[in-house]
Design brief:
Layout (H helix, E strand, L loop, with lengths): L2 H12 L4 H19 L7 H18 L3 H20 L10 H20 L18
Helix pairs in contact: 2-3, 2-4, 3-4, 3-5, 4-5
Length: 133
């Protein structure tokens, strides 16, 4: 059984969901991941980032549309940089460490999307050509 068929079954079972709703659920997943990551000591920024990346990956596995997945990965970076690395929502660029965080969130998102079968939400079945002869 291919993963595309599994993703199709999951899509048809749940029905189409608007991207706006999936984006809201993705934001909740990021917030929940950040709350769990905040229990890790502040000195372990890599572990905190990985916990939040796991939340992004799980959301990406669940979601049907790539746009909320990408937006959730961006939001995860902003939350991680503002609240898990720095304090009080202060956003600062930390050079290579922040670049690696961005990569970690997008790799987690891509991995979750791929694990779900990698189906695009706006993907349609090709129409069969009718022969008029």
């Amino acid at each position: 059984m291919s993963t595309t068929n599994e993703a199709s079954r999951r899509l048809s079972r749940r029905g189409p969901m608007p991207a706006e709703i999936e984006l809201s659920i993705g934001a909740l997943a990021v917030i929940a991941g950040a709350l769990v990551a905040s229990t890790v000591p502040h000195a372990e920024a890599v572990t905190r980032t990985l916990v939040l990346a796991l939340a992004v990956g799980v959301f990406a596995w669940w979601a049907n549309d790539w746009r909320p997945i990408a937006a959730s990965a961006c939001l995860a970076f902003l939350v991680a940089d503002g609240f898990l690395v720095d304090r009080y929502g202060n956003l600062q660029w930390h050079g290579c460490a922040d670049a690696l965080r961005v990569v970690a969130f997008f790799v987690a998102a891509a991995t979750g999307w791929w694990a779900s079968g990698g189906r695009w939400a706006d993907e349609t079945e090709p129409l069969e050509e009718e022969s008029g002869e």
